[in-house]
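User: My advisor asked me to double-check a structure prediction for FAD-binding oxidoreductase before group meeting. I don't want to rely on an old file, so could you generate it fresh from this sequence?
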Amino acid sequence: MTNYSSVSSVAEEPLASSAKPACPAKKPAEVTIIGAGIVGLANAIALQQSGFSVRIIDKQGVAAGASFGNAGHFATEQVFPLADPAMLPKLPGMLLDPLGPFRIQPRYFLKALPWFMRFLVNMLPARRAHNSMAIKALNQKSIDAWQQLVSDCDCQDLLILAGSLLVFERTPLSEIERVYKSYRDAGVSVELLSGDKVRALEPDLSPEITHGLWFTDVGHTPDPAELCQRLARQFEKLGGEFIIGEVTQLAAGGECDHQDEKGVSVSVAGGATYQSDKLLLSAGAWSKPLARQLGFKVPLETERGYHLMMPQLSRLQRPVASFERKFIITPMKRGTCLAGTVEFGGLKAPLVEARADCLLPHAKALLPNVLNGAVVSQGERWMGFRPSLPDSLPVLGASPKSDKIFFAFGHQHLGLTWAAFSAALVAQTIKGEKPQLDMSPYRIERF
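Assistant: Sure, here is a fresh prediction for FAD-binding oxidoreductase from the sequence you gave:
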């Protein structure tokens, strides 16, 4: 892609012999971002708007990872950490079901065990309350930040604010009311609907649905990959530089005494090295080994998320999640996206087709008229890697070891949701300003 720069010339009067020569204009500080997913792209644009010169390095390119095929849901209603003690009695059954919503591949169990021990600790009431408050703090301004970002990038058509639904088929009303109250008490804008009112909003939904929760202040994108591409175009328009290459080595120098000294070097496979004043690590699920090179041992694990994109178009106006079936349907430009399930198996294990295929029977139950007669072979199977930390919070902000190193990774299921607002916070931090949010819950040294 092309870098753009502007050069201006100004006619000047001849300098008197006693006048000092003019100092050269100070160049914009350079930032290298590792990672071209939605989080890295949002950070790149925020930094460009803050006056930095920005380079992105990614081993595959724009939206090549989890940003390509996620559920497209700006899920600001999700205010509760994943470490929920209510899941403990259900855990053995879920782990034994190879097609259940939550699974650990047997060969990966011992490797994932340390992460799960930390996950269990975060179920303690005080930890859970702290983490929930930190999640809500990011959620509260995320939609506003996205509205500004899509306006800046001229892609308002890729942010649809029609809310989302959580539907119930077999759950007793007393339990539905408890779930409703938990969201309402957490400050989430939500309405409890009867089955008929749910179908008034979404006529294609099954008559078996008895109730629904309508989260009125959330949204979705009809094409997560295109959203990334449009942000990438804006990044290019603002003079950004893309490098395709796998990062092999990171090194941060000492304080710079002169303007032309560089504080950080990034080496990629093949031998090329890129230098810049500052570095932002935003490599998603691949951030853990790179953070280790910078002196941090981060308990990052990979949640392997699946989708099955069916070509059939529904009349859905918003995402629909199922309380009992633990999956989500999102209407998209290319069809109907079925997403969900969590699998722990690392970065190297291949896609398990059955994990994607099992979503179709659930979708047929909720959309019987739309998907009647649909078969798995019509769909597109996909698997992406969610970067998750045991407290359900991302790593954001500055390194305590270097004023040249910054972080924005570990956004778990809310990478799309938090990308724009967390980017604004990180840009403020890199610029040396006080962020509009207390960053201490997200600091890397919390582990």
